[in-house]
């Protein structure tokens, strides 16, 4: 942390920080630590973007695919209630951060795979995760980056501006 803080304090070209991998449930000490981190970044003129907690599948994605001599044992679809539960829990953290750091932005990574009725962990026939630990597959990473780019175009347009295009080279 000290090493990273030193880079931030001496390199004033850092304009954005993305904080991701946050849990849906947390205690007051977690919120306090996150608030301190966000405040440090903002004090160094860095726009903070927090990725909201992801809806978990809850089992290995491999269960969604047929295997030799076995059918799929799961659908890889979870009802919208799971997303609502994650949102409700995360809203506490979001409100606390907004109270002390109102310029912090929040992106919902669930938006590209959750609809009004369900969250689908199979996207266009491709698995969203590459393993049972919730690491995104290459395909899902591409889909999420496109969704995030659309979001950033509206909410953090400076993030997508190329340094080369802004200097005229």
Task: Compute the number of strand runs.
Answer: 7
List the strand order in the largest sheet: 1-2-4
* CATH class descriptor: Alpha Beta
Q: Roughly what is the average pLDDT, rounded to an integer?
A: 88
Query: Main sheet?
Result: 3 strands, parallel
**Number of discrete helical segments:** 6
Tally of structural domains: 1
* Low-confidence runs: 164-169
**What is the terminal separation in angstroms?**
35 Å
**Share of helical residues:** 40-55%
Structural class: alpha/beta
Shape: elongated
Q: What integer value in Å does the Rg equal? A: 19 Å
Examine the coordinates and then state which fold CATH places here, giving the name of the CATH topology.
Rossmann fold
Describe the protein's topology.
Elements: H1 2-10, E1 16-19, H2 28-43, E2 47-51, E3 77-79, H3 80-100, E4 105-107, E5 118-120, E6 122-123, E7 126-127, H4 138-155, H5 157-160, H6 163-167
Parallel strand pairs: 1-2, 2-4
Antiparallel strand pairs: 3-5, 6-7
Helix pairs in contact: 2-3
Keywords:
single chain; 169 residues; alpha/beta; Rossmann fold; 3-stranded parallel beta sheet; two-stranded antiparallel ribbon; 6 helices; disordered C terminus
What does this 3D model show about the protein?
This protein has one domain: Rossmann fold, CATH 3.40.50. Helix 2 packs across helix 3. It is an alpha/beta fold and 169 residues long. The protein has six helices and seven strands; from the N terminus they run H-E-H-E-E-H-E-E-E-E-H-H-H. Strands 1-2-4 form a three-stranded parallel beta sheet. Strands 3-5 form a two-stranded antiparallel ribbon. Strands 6-7 form a two-stranded antiparallel ribbon.
